[in-house]
Amino acid sequence: MNTEHNDSPQPNNVARPGDMLRQAREQLGYSQIDIANRLRLRLSVINDIESNCFDSEKISTFTRGYVRSYAKYVGLDDVAVVGLLDDYGHSKPKAQEMQSFSRRTNHEAHDSRIMGLTWILAVIFVGVTAVWWWQNSHLDRDLTPAVDVANVEAPAPADNTSAVVEPSATTVTTETTSTDAAATDITPTDVTASNITPAAITTDTVQTPVVAADTATVIKQVAAVTADTSTTAAVTPVATTEVEATPALQLTFAADCWIDIRDANGKRLESGIKTAGQTLTLDGKAPFRVRLGAPSAVKIEIKGQPFDLSRYPAGRPVTLTLP
Length: 323
Hints:
The chain is built from 9 helices and 8 strands. By secondary structure, it is α+β, with helices and mostly antiparallel strands. It folds into 4 domains: 17-93, Orthogonal Bundle (434 Repressor (Amino-terminal Domain)); 100-153; 155-243, no CATH class; 249-322, no CATH class. A hairpin with a 5-residue loop joins strand 2 (257-262) and strand 3. Helix 2 (32-39) packs across helix 3 and helix 7 packs antiparallel against helix 9 (196-241). The two termini are 42 Å apart.
């Protein structure tokens, strides 16, 4: 089982991490199957670690994490055991591979700030235009009823006055015809004519409340229209903000799988071993950098759309950039 697979010879005085882990396991009385079940790893992975077979085609991406978890479980110093990987020739991956991704992230962040400023200016422009339009339309509604009231009120006193004067003129004609002394009967006519003024004054006095009532009705109508406009303006933003959010990334696990997920800013959203039947929903800034230990055990949905993982080997870890 424990066969050396490395092509290059190693110094005899350098302790090998696989041997240390195997000896600690045997002292505790654990089998390789016990360790594999406890760490939720395949038995072949445990065998490769104890055999110091760190094949880059199989587990190089997750070697340090596997060795660290193994060392902690059997009671060894995980920092010291992981440090032996460097002495053994399994150096830590260089960070230069992420330079292009970092430049892309910085460029996207710069574009996002420019777009944000553009949207803010657009919102301010639309808001100023809407306020200007509302003020002008409100002013037009206020002026139009006032002009209509003036046009309606002006003819009313003249019509009522004519109605009052006509009976007085009829009275004067009747009294003049039925009297023999024309000079003597002029006085009642004058008196009747003098009575026209109170009638006209009374008519004007009565007409004033009618005009005032019409004006009050128009003002109430304008206030009702303004209230309806304000209600509509208040309701519109609420309807705009009612948008159901869809998760940016959703993972469903059919079997145990180790994952490491980061967003475009490099923030780690989730990491560790997930069990079968577990569902993980994540939100963050795309694109996402997803590492999967067992791609065949995972179903991925991006904003509700399934992502095809069938083209990736079932037993080998993969690194994805989504979407």
